[in-house]
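Exercise 7. Given the encoded structure of a 373-residue chain, write a plausible sequence.
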């Protein structure tokens, strides 16, 4: 496509309830949207970086800055740009995968809209509905945790993920397992909060028949993940550590992960995420779609990705209402009947959702940063 302008739009969306993890507490979502405009087509991407650099080194203000100074000018230097070339064009800029992913997504969305192709079809999706899980933050008390979990079960979620950290692990996990019964799908996520000394404690999670334990140790520390995998029955799943196909295949080869969390933002884009999916599938390693508290813009693309055949576990692809009272697109709502606990994969061209531009402009904190070629 030919790019005429790129707009970077910032807005702050309040969360319906605070979301607490071992990294800190989110009260609202600092959203950065990328809007690309061509002669007769436009597209949207969402940058998944958070306001503060706690999940990874990226943060919204930095992502916006690197887009404005370095990424967008590189794309403008081409007369025509295809989504498939964006990663290579941006490769001289080190790091910043979430910023790169958002720009690539917007260009891919515009291009697919122009060609009338839905994202799920372009990626090779094989299902029209995806199974949804929900990520449950660290609660003030066990009682509040149980209320929250049972509320999600009643809404239909097919899998519960508990955030854990030292001091909030065996007891809440055991209590939720008891409440869910043996059939309920349950997993935990530590966001790097543990060290090698905790291996014996983490191995006790085997008692709760979990689907997986996600990223207990530092992102660079594959060796300790290997040790845990050898010490416990529960599959170890990496999130933060897996930044591309090379790191995914290496972690699998070493025995550091037997299930992979795929988040396109962490991997520099949906096209690299697709390659990670393909590599894992070739190795018979299940994958699932992670979440970064996306608005409908990013959620739509995640749901399309989760339609691929290797996504055999429910994702953190929850309904819009899990986080937001009002979404920036038409809301994602869990299905009913045979589709209880599922989201329908958008089937219109591009990400298949419509950005509520009036609402976005009303809520935008400052005038968008507009860059033209
Ligand atoms: O989008 O439902 C969502 C969030 C799911 O737990 C979630 N994401 O490590 O997987 C993860 C976390 C990253 C965000 S923690 C603030
Ligand atoms: Mg995680």
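Solution.
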């Amino acid at each position: 496509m030919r790019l005429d302008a790129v707009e970077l739009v910032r807005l702050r969306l309040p969360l319906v309830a605070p979301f607490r993890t071992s990294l800190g507490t989110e009260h609202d979502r600092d959203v950065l949207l990328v809007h690309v405009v061509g002669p007769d087509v436009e597209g949207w991407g969402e940058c998944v970086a958070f306001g503060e650099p706690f999940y990874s080194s990226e943060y919204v203000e930095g992502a916006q800055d690197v887009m404005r100074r370095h990424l967008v000018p590189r794309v403008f230097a081409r007369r025509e740009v295809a989504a498939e070339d964006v990663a290579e064009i941006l490769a001289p800029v080190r790091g910043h995968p979430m910023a790169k992913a958002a720009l690539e997504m917007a260009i891919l969305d515009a291009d697919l809209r122009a060609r009338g192709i839905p994202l799920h079809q372009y990626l090779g999706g094989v299902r029209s509905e995806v199974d949804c899980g929900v990520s449950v933050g660290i609660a003030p008390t066990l009682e509040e945790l149980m209320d929250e979990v049972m509320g999600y079960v009643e809404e239909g979620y097919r899998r519960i993920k508990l955030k854990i950290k030292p001091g909030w692990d065996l007891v809440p996990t055991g209590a939720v397992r008891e409440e869910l019964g043996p059939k309920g799908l349950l997993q935990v996520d530590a966001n790097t909060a543990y060290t090698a000394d905790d291996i014996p404690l983490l191995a006790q999670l085997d008692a709760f028949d979990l689907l997986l334990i996600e990223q207990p140790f530092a992102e660079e520390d594959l060796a300790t993940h290997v040790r845990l995998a050898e010490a416990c029955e529960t599959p170890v799943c990496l999130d933060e550590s897996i930044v591309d196909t090379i790191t995914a295949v290496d972690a699998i080869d070493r025995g550091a992960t037997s299930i992979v969390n795929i988040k396109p933002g962490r991997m520099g884009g949906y096209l690299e995420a697709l390659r990670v999916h393909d590599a894992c599938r070739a190795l018979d390693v299940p994958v699932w779609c992670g979440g970064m508290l996306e608005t409908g813009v990013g959620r739509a693309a995640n749901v399309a990705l989760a339609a691929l055949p290797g996504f055999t576990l429910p994702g953190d692809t929850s309904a819009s209402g899990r986080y937001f009272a009002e979404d920036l697109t038409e809301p994602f709502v869990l299905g009913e009947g045979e589709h209880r606990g599922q989201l329908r994969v958008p089937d219109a061209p591009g990400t298949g959702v419509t950005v509520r531009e009036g609402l976005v402009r009303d809520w935008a904190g400052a005038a968008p940063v507009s860059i033209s070629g």
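Remark. The pocket of magnesium ion (ligand 2) is lined by residues 189, 191, 214-215, 239, 261 (CB under 6 Å). Students should compare their own answers with the one above.
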